[in-house]
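User: Show me sequence and structure for the first protein, then do the same for the second.

Assistant: Starting with the first protein.
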Amino acid sequence: MANKRKRKKHTKLILLIELVLILIAIAVGIIVLLYSKINKPDWDDGKVYTNELNDDNMSRYINIALFGVDSRANDLTKNTRSDSIIIASINKYTNKIKLLSLYRDTYVFIPEHGYTKLNHAYAYGGPKLAIETINRNFDMNITDYITVNFSALTDVIDALGGVTINVTSEELNEVNRYAKDVARINGREWTKIEKAGEQTLTGVQATGYSRVRYLKGGDYARAGRQRTVIDAIIKKARHSGPKKLYNAADCFLPQIATSLSGTEFARLVSFFPLYNIESQDGFPFDKTNKTINKAAVVVCNTLPSNVKKLHEYLFETKDYNPSQTVVKISNGS
């Protein structure tokens, strides 16, 4: 009798292991299928420029550049300015994420193009030059990126059933104005938001919200709204079922481009349910609005001090010593 019970337990264990293996195989198959839909230009991490860095804490994080572009032809790797530039820093051990918006008008040094606005780098040389500009000016070690077409933002939000956003009374009219324009450009239906407050927004409405610029705070506040939408998408996705998530990915992924390898992409997807946005902010921290060569730009009060604060914020590094490259850029040489 005892042997019979042991055989039953053994059989159940084998069935459980087989079920787990089948589920893993299905998950791997889905990830491979999803990855095949992504635009994957030629990319070599080893050829991306970085300064000589002295921050050991950086090794604990995966740093990815997120670019938002408005490309009618879905050409995501060149000839377009990046309206949204965000560093996503993922702690490898806690899966907590910090988001840092880089203001698109930040005055930086772009190799072979001199001093100008940060968002010009993507137009001049695609994601590679944009990342190298970020690495060179801010002592970062980024080698990977994800570029998203703004129409993809609309699609993924609709596929998830909308996202929860708190629209203030000051934002209401501007959100409706931008949402109406988003609908016109992308050939979508538009529904007016009738009142302020926390509510579920459609893809068109949420994309309009993320584009609002001409209110108090200007581009700084807009960058904050973009981070708010990203946070709302992650929260909604975390509580969505497999079918809804697959449908969202199916319409979203063909509209992005990334340098991530299949293995790196699989890791991000696998850990997605565990990710949590810990904090978000904007860079430069200490800044001044100026007009240079008839262009409105955001200037770091001092580049080295801002870079020190960046490393403290993202990597919890106290008293970081900026590289000589950062010092030279700050001095204009």
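Switching to the second protein now.
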Amino acid sequence: MKTIFILLISICTTANAQYTQLISFDEPTNGSQPNTSLFYDGTFLYGMTRIGGTYEYGTIFKIKPNGTGYVKLLGFKGTENGRNPMGALISDGTFLYGMTANGGKMGKGTIFKIKTDGTDYLKIHDFVGSGNGSNPIGSLVFDGTYLYGMTPLINTNEKGTIFKIKQDGTGFTKIYDFSATNESYPRGSLILGGTFLYGTTQLGGAKNAGTIFKIMTDGTGYVKLHDFDSSLSGAYPICSLVSDGTFLYGMTESGGKNGAGAIFKIKLDGTGFEKLLDFAFVANGGFPKGSLIFDGTFLYGMTSVGGASSKGVMFKIMPNGTGFSKLLDFDGITNGSSPTGDLIYDGESLYGTTGSYVGAFDKGTVFKFQLSTNTGIAENALETSLTIYPNPSNGNFTIEMKETSTNSNIEICNSMGQNLFNQVINASKTTINTGLKSGIYFVKVCDSKGQMHAKRMIIQQ
């Protein structure tokens, strides 16, 4: 495998010293237009570019959080292994899994897996159109047995599917067909909460402005939780949802008071819908195309346009809709423009991609945004009361509180803010067996006094 070393680190000489550009894509060498989100395993950030690379069909790459160690793991070739990846990679601890929107045997897209060193690539499924879906543009989600995903519009009569497949490519099953009579064109990725999968459709519903739904992992129990109605609650939710265990949070690409999109929340049972924010272009961004992440205090996200330079913004907002703050204005000159993926978090910084960069190559960037201590996402000021060891661990670790703890609640979230583990403890020292895969996680302990303690944890299998 050819390893390419590029001068990657250079802290931007903008007024915002928190921003660092890790790489500027140049198309033939390392890809172009990284419209997908990143994945972090504790050592490397992994991502994909939609086009570029040797065959101009996109790439898979990895890079360290300090900007060194860039490696192009794969160049997509089209029929042989797919082309134009549009979602993020996920991991089972050994392999990375992803999808391409096009290419493969029938030109309708593929599902693939590859090891983190770029070896053992395997195309595990070819989409064929009618019958099993086509042209997936989201990401997969894994429950330990099956990978789940969605495909959007197939033709005028078929409006998209939900499917599951095993890691070795067997057991592909289409578990749900969207139709013109309910919802259509699922765009974001599914999230898993207990026995239900939650997601959104860009179109369909009572006002043809999109919906929120849930469905059981066996394909039964489908429930439409919400119909978007454009001006009141937003329209066209192309972003994925995130959950804190009580509410689902998300964004719509357009609609809302100003037609620029909105941030919303809704309970897992479909009640309690609330619009938290109307985007307004210059003031706070517009047309969000990525998803939110949640750290237990703030929601973080990006918009593709709007802000001071009309190139998009990075922001934070509290789950009750207060505390909105614009963290960064993308300017298209020093820090990229048009971010379309999700942010991820390593405990100290946010990482993301921009689809365009008016500078060296104008092919997109990977960036790092160092969070100051007052942003709300850094480890809690009370963290000295909480000790986790060993850290890194293999998923089995000990939590120790300085004071005796009774009826304290432990939550473990991933870098996307999804709650993956909950347990109540009644001792100051407790051993936890999470069963979680390799990656960066965040342990939050709410003690009996209502005080929150937080620590970053790394699992390495």
